[in-house]
Each structure stands twice: as structure tokens, then as C-alpha cells.
Amino acid sequence: MPARSKPRSQDAKPESNRGRPSRARGRRVYLISGGVTKFAKAHPAMDFRLMVKKAYDYAMKDVPNLTADRIDGTRISYFSDHFARQLKAASMVQDYLGMNPKGSVRLEWGGATGGECVQAAYEAVASGRMDVCLAAGFETMSRVPTWKGNEFIALASDTNFDFPLGGFYTGYYALMVQRHIYEYLRLGKFAGIKDEREAQRKAIAEGGRIMSLVSVKNHRNALHNPYAQYPKRLTVEDVLNSEMISYPLTREQICTMSDGAACVVVCDESHAKEFTDKPVEITGVGCGTDTMRLADRPFGHVPLLPHESAKGYENLPYPGVHSFRAGRTAGIEAYRMAGITKPMEELDFVELHDAYASSEIQTYEDLGLCRYGEGYDFVERGDPFLKGIDYGFPVPHAGRIPVNPSGGLIACGHPVGATGLMQAVFAFWQLQGTIPKHFGDPTLQLEKPRGGAIHSHAGTGSAVTVSILERGFR
Amino acid sequence: MTARPPSYTKFRDVQAELDRSGAAIYRDADGVESLLIRSPYTINYVHSYAEDSPFFLGLAEGRLRGSKCRKPKCGFVYGTPRSHCMVCGAPTEWIDLPPKGRVHSWTTCHFGGEAFLKETPYNLALVEFDGVGSLLLVRLKDCTESEIYVGMPIEARFATNVKYSVTDVWFVPSK
Q: pTM of the entire structure?
């Protein structure tokens, strides 16, 4: 067995986050409504303005006491001017919705664009600048061919050193999961195999099999979500046998490009009470970042969550390219603000950014749903699966902490600027207990959930947001 | 030219028509029609390597260069060069990287951005070097998916017909 190289440390000591005081916070902030357009490969009959308008009208209809004149301003997000081929597209949304001359800002932060938009609206209200803020996002990715779209997305990698090698994000995530598999499966349950190549092959096959369980989960959950782009009754074999895109990631382990829009209405406590009897409070927000290039990620120590010990992490070079330090950082900040010390016990579900089945597994660990290295076992035990859904294989721990009960990005689609807002809408409905009403199907509604997390993630983990949502009514 | 472009109910057919004639109508399930046109977009950017230039000029001379923090107490060595140290903020100096390294992680891409599809399949590898604190992303050639493994010794090769791109260097398995 090869020796794990000693961490080439850039930060001197393992960091403990225990016992730090929570940061000062502003006014309490609530979600009171949301809307989503059905995500689709293409919506040729709607441009981005009409998509946002439809999501907005849906949200307004759900809170009849709220009229447009009560909205103080907006935060609008979309990822790429390349896809839109319309600069200042957010200005066109603002005027199509009739929001002029109210204040507005456009948000862009790669794949985390939608999550940033939710947090920008949170900040507008928490600070007292606005009482009622509309956060809306969209993307129209169908206007270019898929592989040109991949090229556009890869322009969100370093154009000196990374882009010219292939212009391909799936390649970058494949590099990350290959190292994750090496650290935790090759050096974990396959540590006893002497032949290095044989051990690595077996570890990769095992990693691919377990990633397929995640893909089956999300696609089958989505069978009960009418907004999802690709609900499918897949089997593990279907996933493994789908086209190889970048080894070991297959087509069914990767989200697709989409057209779509989503929005939420955010407000302070007194307005929340005026407009709804089922508000959902945003109790914590966090954001982390990391280097643009994978090659520059440090080999330091794991920043610990309150419930974690450093035992077992002594020789783990962190984050390297196997984990998302930005996700861990965002989780630490959001949990601290919300007062969460045991996420597995205090959260009832998580909607996270599963652009790849691999990054869903990596994110369980970043968010402390399990320890680093336990993500594969976490899936095999069934912890992130829903109770009462037939996945075609046993899930003994189903229901412990459902992850992506909506179907996630893999099954719902990923119109980048809308995605983080879609997660906010689905989590909001989940906490309100209104999934049966909005989905027309009660299957995905959890029983009286109290709190959930949403997680939005930009290119190879260069920026991540985590927001904690809690039921704001009895 | 006809006054009204052909109409389709499938987006795929609309795309094909745009490639043929440049205009098409999409009719959705409710019978609502949308007019779509082909809209080309090409541009030649001036791409300056700016402070990274010595790396790319080095490749043309068959030199693979990293950088090292000038501050003695820090001295961090970068496998992908940068002109200021990310750890302490001090300026860095150019150094030659070791000619040989190991695979830190790898993949074989069967697809890629549109401009790279014709090159598929190709291998990407993150290279680790002894005594160097960060990695370098490269193409890995002369080996296939079934032969590559983490820890595999590899070494640099340089283009003779230089393109002044990071692809002027690639790695191959060490003999």
C-alpha cells in the first residue's frame, strides 16, 4: 500500500470552530412565497423574461395579500452573458415584471449564482434596506449546441492554464472524484490489495457503482416532482451502462443543460405575518470560496464542524482535489449562525448541488452529514434516501436525512442562474408542508420537517453557498 | 426566399432547419408559434498571458517553469506558476520544475468543449512533483485508460511546432 504523502501544509494548525460566538445578525428574514417554471431542454416559445414572469406570477398568486407595489426591490441572477447573448438581461427582467424604477442588482457567481441571489435578498432585508425583496433567476442554455454550451461553461475555468486542455467541466469533476476514490476507497476498504493497479481498478468500479445509487435515487425521487426535467425509473445497470463522458463519470451521473426560471419572495417578520400564515425563516447563511484552478488547492488540515473530532484526519491532506473546502467553509458559517451543532440531528433534509453524482457524495462530507471518507458507506446504508420509494435495492437507513428529495440537479435540470432559487422554492414548500399542493402529489412531502439546508456550488467548488431554512410557524 | 419559414414541432428539427436556411418556426403543443433565426457569433480576442508569459515562452524553449515565493520564511513552490504568493502575498521568482513527476489524479475525456471534440478521447492528469507544493494540469499521452493509475511516474514532452498554448507541453509515462 502506498504511503499517503504528508500534508504540505499551508495553514499551521487544525482549526476548531467550537465555541466561537455567532456573528452579529440583522433583522429576522423569512421566505413567504416561491415559483418555478418547469425546467426543460428548451423553451423555444419563451425567452428569459417570460420564464421569470411565469415563476413570479405563480409566487404572487400564492400570497394574494402581496401586491407588486409592496415589493421594495429585486435581486436578479443569471450565470452567463454567453448563453443569454444579451448583456444586462436582468434589466430586461426588471422592466418586464414592471419593477422599474425600484432598485435591483444582478448576481453572478458561477454555478452558485442562484444561491448567491437568495443570500443577496436575505442581506437586503436583514440590513433593513428593504422590507420585501424579490429574488429571481433564470438561464436559457438551449440557444447553443450542447458541446458549445460545455465550452461556455468551461470558460469559467482558468483560460491560461485549464481551458485550452479540453474546455470541459465534466473532466475537472472526474479528476476530483478519481482522487476522492483513491483517498477513501483505495486507501480505505481496498487497502489490503497489494497490486496497485488492481486495487485502483476495483476502487474505481466500486465508486462508480455507489455513484449510480445516487443517480437512481435522484431520478426516482423526481418521478413525483412535476417540475423535474428528467424523472426516470433507472436501475444501477442503466446508469453504469450509459455513455462514458469522462472516466469514470457516465451520462446518467451528470446533470444536463436546461432552460428555466425560479423566484422567491423574502421579507422581514412583520411583513411575513401580514402575507402568510406559513412563513419559513432563513436562520443561517454561509459562503466559502476556493482557488479557481484545481492545481492550486492546498494540502492543509480539515476545518472541523462542532460535532467532529480531528481523530483520523491527521494524515489527510485537505482539501487537495478530493473535497470542497468552500462547501465546508459555507457549512461552518451557516451552521454557526443558525446554532446548528449536530447537522444530522437538527436538519430534516438537504437540497444540495448534485451537478455530478460524485459531488453529491463529496458534499455529504463537506456538510458533516458524515465524516470525510464515509460518503460511500453513507449512500450504501441508505441515509440520504426517502422512505416509501422503491429504488430497486435495499436502503436500510432510508429517511434518516433525505438528500435531494426533489430529484436535485441530476433529475430536475440545471438552468444555472435559476438552480439555487429552485432549491430554495422546493425547500420552502417542503417546510411549509405544501408539496402536495404544488406538486399535485404528496409522495415527496416529509412529515412536519422543522429545518433544511440548501447548498449552491460554483465550478469545481470555487464558491459555495449554504443557507439554513426553518419552519417559521407552529 | 419564401415569406414564411418552415414550421416544426420538435426543437431538434428547428435546429436542423436553422443550420440549413437560417430561419424556422417552432410550434408548441398549444399551437403558439415562435420565430427563430440563426445568429452567428465569432470574434478574435487579444489574449494576453501578461504576468504568466514567461511560462508560455519557456514552453517554446522546452522549459517547464513553476514559481517560488521570494520571502525566505515562506518559500512556497508552485507547480502552476503565479507571480505573487497565495500564502503570504510576496512576489515570486521563476524556477524550473523537475522534468519528472507522478499522476496525482487523472481522467479520460470522451467528450469535451466543442473546439476539442475532434481530439477525443484524451487524458487529463494533475501532476505532483517532488519538492513542489501545488500541482499542474496537463494532457497525458502515449497511454490509455486501462494503463493509467494514481502515482504513475510521468515526464514532460514539448512541442516542436509551438502554438504558445499550455498544450505545448504534455506528459508521457516514464520508461
A: 0.95
A140-150 residue pLDDT tens: 999 999 999 99
Domain boundaries, chain A: 29-146
Name which of A356, A281, A368, A280 is nearest A329 in CA terms: A368
CA distance A225 to A230: 10
The pLDDT tens digits for A375-430 are 999 999 999 999 999 999 999 999 999 999 999 999 999 999 999 999 999 999 99
As beta bridge partners, residue A259 has A40, A140
List, in order, residues 6 or more apart from A94 with CB less than 8 Å away: A74, A76, A100, A102, A104
What is the CA A147 to chain-centroid distance, rounded? 23
Whether B96 and chain A come into contact, CB under 8 Å, resolves to no
ipTM of the complex: 0.95
Contact check, Cβ <8 Å, A159/B47: yes
Cα-based angle B76, B82, B85 (whole degrees, multiple of 5): 40
Whether chain B has a CB inside 8 Å of the CB on A4: the answer is no
> Rounded to whole angstroms, how far apart are CA atoms B46 and A176?
32
Q: In this complex, do A162 and B76 lie within 8 Å of one another by their Cβ atoms?
A: no
Query: A168 and B39 in contact by Cβ < 8 A?
Result: no
Q: CB-based contacts of B27: which residues, under 8 Å, 6+ apart? A: B7, B8, B9, B33
- Going by the DSSP 8-state scheme, the letter that residue A302 receives in this structure is P
Q: Are A35 and A59 in contact (CB under 8 A)?
A: yes
Q: Mean pLDDT across chain B, nearest whole number? A: 96
Query: With bands split at pLDDT 50, 70 and 90, how would you rate the model's confidence at B41?
Result: confident
Distance CA A174, CA A294 (A): 12
- Determine the Cα–Cα distance for residues A456 and A285; give it in Å rounded to an integer: 12
User: Which residues of chain B neighbour A243 with C-beta distances below 8 Å?
Assistant: 110
Residues A296, B115: C-beta atoms closer than 8 Å: no
Judged by DSSP in three states, B62 sits in coil
Residues on chain A touching B15 (C-beta within 8 angstroms): 145
Q: Are A321 and A176 in contact (CB under 8 A)?
A: yes
CB contact under 8 A, B149 and A196: yes
Name the residue facing B107 among A142, A182, A246 (closest C-beta): A246
Judge contact between A103 and A133, C-beta under 8 A: no
Q: Which residues pair with B77 in a beta bridge?
A: B68
What does the DSSP 8-state code read for residue A356? B
Residue B97: which residues within 8 A CB-CB, separation 6 or more?
B64, B65, B66, B79, B129, B132, B136
DSSP A292: S
Rounded to whole angstroms, the Cα distance separating A142 from A150 reads 12
Among chain B residues, CA nearest to A197:
B149
Yes or no, beta carbons of A245 and B110 under 8 Å apart: yes
Distance from A178 to chain B by nearest Cα, in Å? 6
Architecture of domain A29-146: 3-Layer(aba) Sandwich (3.40)
* Whether B46 contacts B60, CB under 8 Å: no
* Average pLDDT by stretches of 10, chain A with 474 residues: 45 46 76 96 94 98 98 97 92 98 97 98 98 98 92 94 95 98 98 97 98 98 97 98 98 96 98 98 98 97 96 94 98 97 98 98 98 98 97 98 98 98 98 98 98 97 98 95
